[in-house]
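ARCHIVE CARD
CATEGORY: sequence design from structure
SOURCE FIELD: tokenized fold
FIELD CONTENT:
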């Protein structure tokens, strides 16, 4: 009986050693894949630090505020209605609504907001969440972008200069 238990102990020890070798081999494969991924990332061109959209430039020297929305977003609809209500002569720039669905243009029909329905341009602007307000300088260069969670956020972003916002 003692010999049987000793042989089981030796076999379990050998099994553990084999599992360690298998684990080491798998770890080596993972490290090789990580190295290949890092090489692929290094070879990919980096995104430009400053984006520019000529369409959002203005000849009068005023900035352009672009509200990027999506069709099925209730928050986007509310922010678009609010933008239409506040856009006008008191706004220190031009107001644009950017969307990929024609239906979104109806949200700002009552105001002085220019609706731009262009799916390709929405992809070029490439926001991570909607609604997002993007400010473009008069030459069409992006100055900043912010996700707009409420009407108060939208009012603050439309009224406060970027230098004041950074210090806040």
């Amino acid at each position: 009986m003692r010999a049987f238990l000793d042989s089981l102990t030796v076999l379990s020890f050998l099994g553990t050693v084999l599992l360690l070798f298998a684990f080491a081999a798998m770890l080596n494969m993972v490290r090789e894949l990580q190295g290949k991924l890092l090489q692929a990332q290094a070879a990919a061109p980096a995104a430009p630090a400053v984006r520019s959209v000529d369409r959002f430039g203005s000849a009068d020297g005023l900035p352009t505020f672009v509200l990027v929305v999506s069709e099925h977003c209730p928050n986007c609809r509310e922010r678009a209605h609010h933008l239409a209500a506040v856009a006008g002569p008191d706004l220190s720039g031009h107001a644009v609504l950017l969307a990929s669905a024609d239906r979104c243009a109806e949200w700002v029909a009552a105001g002085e907001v220019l609706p731009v329905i262009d799916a390709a341009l929405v992809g070029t602007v490439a926001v991570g969440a909607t609604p997002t307000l993007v400010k473009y300088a008069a030459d069409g260069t992006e100055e900043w972008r912010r996700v707009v969670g409420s009407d108060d956020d939208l009012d603050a972003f439309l009224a406060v200069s970027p230098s004041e916002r950074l210090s806040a």
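CARD ANNOTATION: Residues 79 and 133 are 10 Å apart (CA to CA). The two ends are 78 Å apart (CA to CA).
SHELF: design records, drawer C
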